[in-house]
Amino acid sequence: MRISVIGAGYVGLVTGACLAELGHVVHCTDNDSAKIAVLESGKLPIYEPGLDEIVAKNRRSGRLSFSADPATAVAQGDVIFICVGTPPLPNGDADLSSIDRVAQMIAAEAKSDKLVVEKSTVPAQTGQQLKRVLEIYGRGRGIRFHVASNPEFLREGTAVGDFLHPDRIVVGVDDETAEKQLREIYRPLLDQNFACPLHNGSCPHSNQPTWLVTTINSAELIKHASNSFLAIKISYANMVSDLAEMLGADIEQVMHGVGLDPRIGPHFFKPGLGFGGFCLPKDLQAFVRLAERHGVDFSMLREAERINHQRIESFVEKLRHSLWVLKGKKIGLLGLAFKANTDDIRFAPSIELIKRLHNEGVRVSAFDPQASEKISGQFPDLNCTADAYESANGADALLIVTEWPEFRDLDWKRIHQIMARPLVLDGRNLLSAEEMRALGFEYQSVGRPRVAQAMPTTSA
Ligand code: UDX
Question: What is the pLDDT of residue 115?
Answer without folding.
Answer: 98
